[in-house]
Design goal:
With 191 residues, the protein is mainly α. It has one domain (25-188). It has 7 helices and no strands. It has helices at residues 2-17, 30-36, 41-44, 52-88, 95-117, 131-157, 162-188.
Amino acid sequence: MVRFFIVIFIFFNKTFSGQEFYPLPQNIPVHTKILWGENGIIRKLKLNPKTRSSELRLRVKMLQLHQKIALGTLCVFSYQSYLGNQMVNEDYTNRDIHRKLSKVVWLSYMSSASLSYFAPPAMKYSKRFDSMTIHRVLSWFHFSGMAVIPYLGYSIANSENYNEAVRVHQTVALTTLGTMFLSAILSFIPY
């Protein structure tokens, strides 16, 4: 009986500790497969952890940091939106703070998005419709908003129709903030 356990221990130790064995799920998202698949960029550059368990620990750390930075970004973005609303109401006393916060919000958002986007693959991916599926769909909307908001902000100063430029900027910013807020709520709902 002892020999049986020794053989099993040696088999599992060799199988799961080597760099060669990576039990990856079948339905990995396309971007994750390009980065982390068996022939993915990160594996070809040998930037991946040595074991799948180390990879999963890295994933957890990256996604936890993603959540923390995203919540901080959401708070600062909410305050920045409040200041933007003051400017819509012709109170420009905090214009410089609004402008400076735009850089902080954009950089922290992109940092958070990168942590999620570049995280190693999960143990499995569900095909069912759940809170994380909605969270991922909403991420496309708030990422698109974050990508275009700086341009819309800069274009206000050079616009021939100031009021229309402000309205478009404000609409996109509030829509982006709303989808981020909903994504944050969904991340706390068990899936």
